[in-house]
Amino acid sequence: MRGKITILFLMILPFLGFAQEKGLDEKINDAFMPIADTWEGIVLFKVPIGEYNIPFVVLLLVLGATFFTLYFKFPNITKLGTAIKTVRGKYTDIEMHGADLLYDNEEPIGVEDIPNTIRDESAHGEVSHFQALATAVSGTVGLGNIAGVAVAIGLGGPGATFWMIICGLLGMSTKFVECTLGVKYRDVGPDGTIYGGPMYYLTKGLKEMGFKNFGKILGGLFAILCVGASFGGGNAFQSNQAAVQISSILGVKGGATGVIIGVVLAIFVGIVIIGGIKRIAKITEKIVPFMAGLYIVASLIIIFANFSDVGFAFQLIFDGAFTPMAGLGGLVGVLIVGFQRAAFSNEAGAGSAAIAHSAVRTKYPASEGVVALLEPFIDTVVICTMTALVIIFFNINGSDAQSVFNYTAEHGSSVLLNATGQPINGVDLTSMAFNDTIPHFSYVLTVAIVLFAFSTMISWSYYGLQAWKYLFGKGKLADLVYKLMFLLFVVIGAAATLDAVIKFSDAMILALVFPNMIGLLFLFPKVRAEMKRYLSAINTKEVAIEEGAVDLKDHL
Question: In this entry, which stretches build a coiled coil (predicted)?
């Protein structure tokens, strides 16, 4: 272990030497920007609908999520209770051993009848429901919630928040579908290691349906794009915004500041990702509740401190969603900004979270599908909305809604201006908003931002590594090559500008939608069958307990 850490450190060490060169951050950004611009143009191509040009990927996300919501009869609402019970472990026994074995007998098994052989035959998997959810949430609840919301409001006004919420609610249904499939079609290695995600359910699921070659193409395409997404949205964007906040607190910018911060982040990330999903899960299950709790408590303090303005803030959100202010590109423009930022934040439809959820211990794929419902709800509906309210309170200036936000056409888009007339966006805006009510909270927010960024990066390193293994095999050398490349992008992201990083990150995350959503639209009937099987197992247990059987969940 120490030898691997030493190798990682030595591979990154040359950047410390280069860090003395003046303007290294700018040189890295100049080299990175053309790549970001080109890739953004390819992925976010637009189709004309009436008088609007809408990115096709946004249409695919919205229409697909709406279809799944209707087809599965609003699982984002009706299955929330089941999701909470599942993640709390109420059905652990049947998920480990099956309802038929434990409860569907004339004389259901009692506590004294559970031999070690039954324990040994339990479900495959490496992590619990809560650990899988924590890992997946750590990959989504991150700087998309802190900086991404600020970007959305900066580009689309308060109304973009409304469409982010709608996208989050619809995305719950998509997440349910893709994570159920992730568990159903996962591979289990000889040592019990789990390999799962869209590349597996696209390949194996479509092969079952007679589309073997098509499945291989989609699976391979997803894996290639997932590696790129792990370098972009799951890595470079996170290190970029962490570096911005750290350098702001330290009062040092320019030169090689970003590179130095990136190298430090890369070393800490490298130490964790060597250990694989089990270590990542152990870290995230501790970090995620802490950082989410810290951020939510701070947000609630500001919301209650501005309680009299809550109604006005929601009025701005609702009015802005349907009657956007001048210069925002109209209703469709605001909708696109909201959906695009929400998709980047919760990744529903991208399929990435299915990789983490696939590692869960269960015999019922749909059990993890319902747990995954909670992810977009926590990420977008709750945390993003809180961030939006904090930013709106910060910018409220009198009762005139038109004077609340000042916009400019500089820099090619409408951006929010601070009191001195300078454009502010991303994490800087969120930090200023928190500091306005809680003096010096930017120091605490810096800790939260670094933890958000850190947990997201280690989760996405696992996603990318799984895709890398799918493409290049499961050898140790292949693993090391990927991890070194991942750490390099930690440094690149920290050095580049937000504009360059967010273009590349958006495009990489959203590119995953194409192969994934196409596959989901073929495979969704499989999810319906799995859901019926899981609900039947739950019913079998509940009926047996009503008839006097012992609940075995605490004895296995």
Answer: none
